[in-house]
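Q: Here's a chain of 295 amino acids. Please give me its 3D structure as C-alpha cells.
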Amino acid sequence: MNHRLIKKFAERYSFDEGALIDTLKATAFKVNDGVVTDAQMMALLIVADQYGLNPFTKEIYAFPDKKNGIVPVVGIDGWSRIINGHSAFDGMTFHSSETIVTPPGGKPCPEWMDCALYRKDRAHPIVIREYLDEVYREPFQGNRDGRSYAVNGPWQSHTKRLLRHKATIQAARMAFGFVGIYDQDEAERILEGQSGDLGDPRVIPIQGEPSDQARKVSQKLIQRAEKAHGAWNAAIEYASEHFDGADLAFVNQEIWKAETDWKKAKGTSVLEAPPESPASVAFASVKQMLGNKAA
C-alpha cells in the first residue's frame, strides 16, 4: 500500500493512521456482500486525492467492480466542490425547454435542460444540453411471491433536480476535463452493463505496489511535460498506453501532483502547447518525444 498517501489523509482529517483504511472500507464503499481489498481502497484514495474530495462526508465513494477495481462515484456536493474550486470557473446558468413531459412514474419536467458553464479564460461559455428521455431511470420493477411491485427512486421524487444535476456534471466534464469519476446513476449503469454510450469507464484496477520502472518513467514524464510548457495530457496518454494496474495508478498520481504544483507556481491555467505554435502540432511533437525517450 501507498503509506505516504495513507499518512497524508490521516493528517488531513486528523484521523488515526492505523484505523483509516478499515474505517473507509466500512463507510466509503457501496458493498452488499464480499470484501473490499486494500488495493480497491487505495484506488479510491488516489482519486479522492486527485480531486481534493472528502470520502468521510460522501463527497466521493465507490462501487467495487467485478475485476478487482472500482467505479469512483462523486455526489453532487463533490461535483460542486471541484467545479467551484477550479481556478478558471466563472459561474454557470441554466435554461430549460418550454415543453413539459411526464416520464413513467416521474413528475412533470422540462423535455431538456441546458447548462452554460463560463470559464475566465474563454470568450464563450460551454453549453451542454441533457435530454430527459436519455437519462431518466424508471422505477425499479420486482416480483415477490408472484406479485409485481415497483420501487421509486430519486428520479421519481426529484425529476427536475436530477435533470439539472445531469446537465451540470456533463458541462463540468466538457469545460474542465474531469475524468474517471461518475455520479451514482452512471456507476449503477456501468455495473449493470447498461452504460450505453458513456464510453469506456475509467475503472481503476490496482494489484499491488508500483514497479521500479513506473517510478523511473513517472519522473521522466514529469520533467518532459514541464519542459514542453505543461504538456500534461501527453504525459497521461503515454502512461495509459504503457502501464496498467498499480503502475498506471501510481504514474497518474505522480503526474497529477506535479501538474497541480506546476499550475500553482505558474499562477495560470495549464497551457497544452507553447503559445508560438499550433496546439495540435505541439501536442503531437510532445507525445512523440515522450514515446521515444521516456522508457
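Q: Can you summarize the key feature?
A: The longest strand covers residues 89-96.
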